[in-house]
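Mods, move this if it's the wrong board.
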Amino acid sequence: LTPDQCRWLAQAADRYPGTRREGPHRARALVYLCLNHYLWARQHEDDILRPGQITAMRINGRHQEQHRTTWDVPQKNAASDATRLQPVHHDAVRAIDEYLPHRATTRDDTGHLFTTVNGRPLEPQSLIRILRTVAATHPDLEEAAPTLSADAVTHSPAGPET
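Not the wrong board. Structure tokens:
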């Protein structure tokens, strides 16, 4: 996505009404995490959150360090318990905080940050579906929405277009 398209996706997430089964809060938090590098306005590997990392994030992985929030994020192609602290933009943190009171849980909650309406951990494929659904609500992204991939969003250029 271009920087303009990233901005449009964030706008779509802000206005997304959700569905009857799913409210807008989870979708907004997921989109903002996918746009973490764009929100920081820099293209640095430390700011990119991949779809599998986002869906594997845990509630207890949050760390507040004065004005900065970081999260224990699972690492790709590493041991299942391998994490590293990853900076999360304050807009994404606010979106997560708005989502948490609406988060579905079950009796045997696994602590995943993002859950389905049944309280199960959200799968990366669901993240892609949510991104596409949100993108389809913006007139400038409608055409790209059916083929939009979460990796394309997370690896979009963060700087201004030239």
